[in-house]
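A quick aside before the break. I want you to see a complete sequence-to-structure record at least once, exactly as it would be stored in a machine-readable document. Don't worry about memorizing anything.
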Amino acid sequence: MHADTTIGPTKDQAAKYPDLTGKTYLVTGASSGIGAATALALGRAGANVVLGARRLDACEALAAQIRTQGGQALALPVDVTLEAAVREAVDTAVNRFGRLDGAFNNAGMLGAAKPFHELTTEDMESVWRTNVLAVFWCMKYEIAALLANGGGAIVNNASIAALVAFPHLASYNASKHGVLGLTRTAALEYFRQGIRINAVCPGPIETAMAESAFGGADALRAGTANTPPGRAGRPVEVAASVLFLLSNAASYISGQGIVVDGGFTVQ
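That is the input. The structure line, written in tokens, reads:
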């Protein structure tokens, strides 16, 4: 028998998050999905939250929500495919709140779904710039800010596509393997300087990107019906793992890709 589809929190339930009062975190791709859920969770945990995305209106609405709940938040227009924009976002976070304690590098794209031999160089370059180069730039400037602050933690969004492959998504698969490679390399370099760097590897989650990958909301539900929990994951469930990795509760964890997929990859 498959697990009851009601297993897990409802969409409006929040996990009991660690206390991050007074700490400052940057979230990219914060306008929707996992990024938005994580930004809201950070606000509930007492953190100062800097929300970055190209959709400034959505970030502003989330920042307002965080402030109504008693938190501090700043929305920024950030195009992570531009190195200067990434650098400016990190600098603004530090200037506004006086420090940076960590980040969730979540922005990404799915890219073209095509047979391998039909992919173009442009298809590959577009995904690589958004999913790998952007994460590199984020980490580069975030690490510099964390070193100045005496340490901190970074979490990258890698996806289970960093561990297994999906047909017709070569550019996405390759890019997410790249994110995990960046995560592990930087973790080795900076642990002794007080910086932990990990990744989350979400499986099918109720987001617009997952629906696109599966071919729609109905296809996502059908495609996850036979997984151990019998459903797709929810953004808040990934957010809980991100906050754990950012907190001191994960003080001995670095260089890892934490799989958050309800057992999707162990079947």
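Two observations worth writing down. Residues 159 and 201 are 4 Å apart (CA to CA). Confidence is low (pLDDT under 50) at residues 1-8. We'll return to this after the break.
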